[in-house]
Amino acid sequence: MGTIDVHTHFVPRAWPDLATEVGPGVWPSLRVESEREAMIMLGDREFRRIGSNCWDASERLADMDADGVDLQVVSPTPVFFAYDSSGSQAAKVARIFNDLALEICEPGAGRLLPFAQVPLQDPDAACAEADRALASGHFGVEIGNHVGDRDLDDAGLVTFLQHCASSGIPVFVHPWDMPEGPRLNRWMARWLTGMPAETHLSIIALILGGVFDRVPDSLRLAFAHGGGSFAFWLGRFENAWQRRRDLIGVSEQPPSHYVDRFSVDTVVFDPDALRLLVDTLGASQVMVGSDYPYPLGEHPVGAVVDRSTFLDDAHRHAIRRGNALRFLGLDADTPTLERSSRS
């Protein structure tokens, strides 16, 4: 019984021209440079160089076998979210990429579990696309951690989270659209500092925005990249909640009360950082992730778990597999990995 990797991404090798299919805009396209390399473009700007492991299931499966990974959650690359477009445009984009995700994952014979994107700026359309995607074969949804200045405590976004809770749809939250500026546009600082800060901010919004007080605890919610900087700064957060209740004490309970309401992945690379996650959130709230196939991801998958000598066998198994089965709503005793808790 191998590892389940809850954090990987895909990019199709081709997709329809979005300006034609959706309407005018600065849309992503793919400049294919060889059988094994391509460049994601945003309009005329180069965004990211990628390899064929983004779309080739055979390469992906070979890499999984080499790392002892049984199952991968295969999520969109956030640049395709289209949150800055109209809801109707983003819904069309989501349908295109969600259908292509099924095609990419189909050769995996059940080992590649696609997650869908949704037009999060339009809650009704997001709920409809999530339902369509799950009925079509997706296993959950990946969302960005904010839509413009609307964080996860925005009323519309809470409506979507409530829908996912009532429908048994797991939600994976990925940071995206980090702030830019002269100090952040060098040394990949947007990724090195912006991603952790964005994720931390969104978890704070869920707590202080009262979302965890209003959304049922049946919501299966997980954050990428170890939950950002949240675990390191929980003590500061707790202190502020206690000492400045006039400004911060707006949640029903102190921040530490809510740490079992969400999970995080292991994309933190260092055993000391993983120990902090386990000590802060509990081993039951941590799942292996890799950020495959991108170069800042972990390779081999689960290496930080292997190097974490403080973990006992039970915790190691939970982090490598058991917690992900619960998050995904899969039956551990069913070889075909049927969904066990979809309502």
Automatic annotation (TrEMBL):
InterPro entries: ACMSD, Amidohydro-rel, Metal_Hydrolase. Residues 4-330 form the Amidohydrolase-related domain. Its EC number is 4.1.1.45. The keyword Metal-binding applies. It is an enzyme of class 4 (lyase). It comes from the Bacteria. Signal peptide: none annotated. Keywords: Decarboxylase, Lyase, Metal-binding, Zinc. Pathway: Secondary metabolite metabolism; quinolate metabolism. Monomer. PANTHER family: 2-AMINO-3-CARBOXYLMUCONATE-6-SEMIALDEHYDE DECARBOXYLASE, 2-AMINO-3-CARBOXYMUCONATE-6-SEMIALDEHYDE DECARBOXYLASE. This is 2-amino-3-carboxymuconate-6-semialdehyde decarboxylase. It comes from Microbacterium soli.
